[in-house]
Request: fold
Amino acid sequence: MLDAAPKLRQEIDAAPARRDGETFYILHDRSGASPSRLLLSTLGLLIAGRLDGASSILEISDDLSREVPGGVGCREVEAVVRALDEALFLAGARFQDFAAQAERDFLASPNRPSGLAGSAYPENPLRLAGALDAILAAAPAPEEPAAGNRPPRGMLVPHLDYPRGAPGYGQAYRLLAGLPKPRAVAIIGTSHVPLRERFTVCDKPFETPLGRAGIDRDLVERLRKAASPHGDLDREVLAHRGEHSVELQVVWLQHIYGEGIAIVPLLAAPVNECLGEAGAPAKMARDPAFRAVAACLGEAADAGETLILASADLSHVGPRFGDSGEAAGRLLAEVEEADRKYLGAAADAGKGLACLAGLGDRHRVCGSASIFALGLALPGARTRLLGYHQAVTPELSEAVTYAAMAFA
Reply:
């Protein structure tokens, strides 16, 4: 095994955690392909970070021994590699076999099972409800006052984990909890894996510890019909199997509206890679696939029958995301200025993308496709910023930003 060169899958993320006064790291698969959570020490995280598929275990041991006091033995490296492999965090045959079987199981299942219960949020319904109630109770006051009496037709909500995203979730869902229950909620989730189509829909009811959220099949069929000249909404349904950006909203909707809420789960393909092309924002605003789906959603929202949620985070900064400096001080101030400028333009889909393009998307806004689609669906909407937040993780020198904003 010393000659083996294991590779950590690029979808694996690490979040810090404290236990008995020490810092550990919880590794998870942001694509959702593996349901595992793995706790590593700081040394374990250093080892995992060296698994590039080119360095052997012996080479990793030798390299780290020059950096870590007391050295790092091959057995220590092998132990971390075995744990990562068992968690399905390494590229290779074991993960490929698991992923293939998981895809077959998903396609055969009548429902989309929860992928996050017991890890991202409590599996026990009473504990989960209590945790969500606590977030609602602690939500900060809205940053901007209400303007007029028109209820929101759409909302920008975070899809960060509940603990780090609590202020934004609390602001958004406390507002929605005080309004009449919509007939259905269309959730435009952020796809964290590449898609060939602009959107993919899932017509499987979502299961969570709070029950089963059914599908608004009438709106799904209207969306399919609208999209059919430009693409196939069902082509990439497998992207929904492990994606968290829709599931995290479903749990909240069930909590404030009850198990019977009907949903339309959509994932939007990332658009960031196109923003460097000349004229990309204007071209994207004319994209027929985006416009067809957005127009159909907008009609449903204007009719008062559907609420549209854009499940989207904003900037991702720090060394792990490609920045040379840590997420602190001047960088965070720069990020906030850029984020707020973008949010101010978000109601106009084309202007929002032009704003990101003008900044070179240098802070990596991961939810731009979902926000763009919401702006296309509700052109001319009056926005109200409920809150802007930065979730900073000092142990990793990184930050993820997000906002809660109403589109009336």
User: Anything to note?
Assistant: The chain is about 40% helix and 20% strand.
